[in-house]
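[RESIDUES AND BACKBONE]
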Amino acid sequence: YGHAFHDHALKRNEQLHNIQDSTAVTVNAPMGKLGIVVEDSSDGGPPFVGEIQKGSALEGELQLFDRIASIDDQDVKELKAFHISKLLAHKSQNLERKIVILREKTEESQNRFIV
């Protein structure tokens, strides 16, 4: 029993480590279809944005591989992509949906300076 728990705790730590190097970004999604594809992560982390269709309401807001952390303040990091897409569709008539994504900090973005 104790051993299985330890393995689970280790796995959680690995996931948290992956998320640690990320920046949380809040995106306000408008009503209706969003035109994004949500995919399950192979590393056990939160599902991510796998595709942003041309003309998507979130084009320019979301980036590929953004991980979806919460929707309207509901933590969805443990949910599967299928459930996240269902939740977003269910809320599609809301005027706005607040989506918090985790965006990995890349070396490039850390070293970019606007002058």
Residues 1-17 have pLDDT under 50 and may be disordered. The first strand starts at residue 22 and ends at 30.
